[in-house]
Amino acid sequence: MKDRVVFRLVFRSFVNLILSAILALISVVLLYYVADFLSRNFYQLQFLRVVGRGIVDIFPSGLGIVFLWVAIFMVYFFILQWMLFSYFDSVNETVRRIADGQLDMNYQIVVKQSSTFGVIASNVNRLSNRLHVALEDERKAEQTKNELITNVSHDLRTPLTSIIGYLGLIEQDRYRDEVELRHYVQIAYDKSQRLHELIDDLFEYTRMRHDSVILKRETFNLVEMLGQLLVQYHMPLQEVGMESKLDSEVTSISIRGDAAKLVRVFENLISNAMSYGKEGKFIELKVKSTGKEVIVEVSNFGDAIPAIDLPHIFDRFYRGDKSRTQWSGGSGLGLAISKSIIDKHDGTIEASSDSERTTFRVTLPRL
Questions:
Q1: Residue 130 domain flag
Q2: Residue 262 and residue 291 in one domain
Q3: Closest alpha carbon to 119 in 169, 266, 286, 127
């Protein structure tokens, strides 16, 4: 809705014009009667009658009275217009001081609702707030970029240093026998795989964050997909001495989304549960349908996530009190990528943890 400031300003000026004319007329009449009363009752003030007649007689045909009225009218009109525009001058001065850096960007001007320029002051406050938020977002983006570069450089350098070190030993023939040579080659290969995984995750995270990934949406049975996923993890779970269970209220829950991307989400959650919930010996997947949403809970019964780390586990490369990748996947990006995928599916992902269990809860819209 338009504020119609110009209309209100013109209307207020017109009102001031009429009001000044009326006040000037009243003032002329009051001046006449007051001067007449004072000159009649006080001998010392008889000069007022003379002054008044002099003003009237200066101009012919009673124009002296008109001249007096015009003079008083101009005084009143100037005062009323000054009162009208003085607040605008205050607003302008505040904006100037904000622009010069003398005041904070989010400084709030006092809004006078009774003033015609109160709407302008309110809009300036809104503009200041938006500029402040934009600048804060820009600072955070710059800080995030710098942190990302620092963390990526650190994580890339660690396996790369190992690869160079072991390849250097091989190149200099600093090994005792073929067994040790194969050991060095295996370590270099494992580190290169780790480096490849990190680079892939980094590219995936960047693509997800910059909306360059187009989801291949299709309709599929979420319960069936999770069941197949647990079958694939049957052997890996046995190798670490763990068991799994899928608990679902129904055998079929249809959702529409990118099945491959969602598989990656649950692979990350199951892998985390295997890595950090070994002591609990058990992983539970529970599926619940709540009207327009489906909730998937992935729980393990190992060590709890520290309360100080819990709000930050979906941040990429989060550094907690323990190992910085303890609860964020092997590359430090697993949960961050998972959150980006779920966000693109208009869902949510959250975590809770206590001494009994750690649960990652994924909520997705269903058909």
A1: no
A2: yes
A3: 127
